[in-house]
Design goal:
The radius of gyration is 31 Å and the shape is rod-shaped. The chain starts with a helix and ends with a helix. The protein has a two-stranded antiparallel ribbon with strand order 1-2. It is built from eleven helices and two strands. It is mainly α.
């Protein structure tokens, strides 16, 4: 009996600790659950930047070939001289590393004013559409993983609590077994943590005993407490 009380004390201490550590636990779980959406986002963004980089680099290369050695060609070469440089410049414009006006101005002045609309569409699609969708996916993934982790935590500790209350290891909890622990300050503290008054223990037992057998099995206990 003393061993069961000690196990119950440990459960209560863990519950109280996680009550104050819930924010940190949620952050850690959210970060780990966001790794897969993060990788998908990186691949999608890299694909978009690559396609746009190929397009603008090709246009800049054609102009530079026709205007070799001019100041205009050198100005385009700064941002669109290579595919890697163009991709980096496009990535920086959507992440705050560069002002996108500095990139689109030489394209509009030396190649075509219509490229201003093309570049603006790239910025709008990437910043407003893609990033907002990605943010929604991240939030939904983090919330779902947080709910799953909370449910799993509750299930594990309810199973452990069920083992403490099941004194004869029969796989069933009778009212007498539950009543034997009601005077324990630790069990009273547990009831307080889950917002149940000790005086309502009898009513809770009857509520969990769905088949009116006078005992509660593990399934009834878990489904009733979750």
């Amino acid at each position: 009996r003393m061993l069961r009380i000690l196990r119950l004390i440990r459960i209560i201490r863990v519950v109280r600790l996680l009550r104050y550590m819930s924010e940190l636990r949620t952050i850690v779980v959210s970060i780990t659950s966001s790794l897969r959406p993060l990788l998908s986002t990186i691949v999608l963004l890299a694909l978009l930047v690559f396609i746009s980089g190929v397009y603008f680099t090709e246009l800049a290369l054609i102009y530079r070939i026709d205007h070799v050695g001019t100041e205009e060609a050198k100005e385009l070469e700064e941002f669109f001289g290579t595919l890697g440089g163009a991709a980096m410049s496009l990535f920086q414009t959507v992440t705050g590393g560069l002002e996108w006006r500095a990139l689109v101005t030489p394209l509009m002045q030396h190649i075509s004013p219509l490229l201003g609309f093309v570049y603006a569409f790239y910025i709008i699609f990437t910043s407003m559409a893609l990033m907002n969708i990605v943010t929604g996916v991240f939030v939904e993934s983090a919330l779902q993983r947080g709910r799953e982790d909370k449910d799993m935590y509750m299930i594990n500790h309810l199973k452990e609590l069920f083992g403490v209350l099941d004194e004869n290891n029969s796989g069933m909890i009778s009212w007498n077994e539950l009543e034997n622990h009601l005077d324990s300050p630790q069990l009273q503290a547990f009831f307080q943590e889950i917002d149940i008054d000790v005086s309502e223990a009898r009513g809770l037992f009857m509520l969990l005993d769905r088949d009116s057998s006078g005992t509660i099995d593990a399934d009834e206990f878990l489904s009733g407490c979750l």
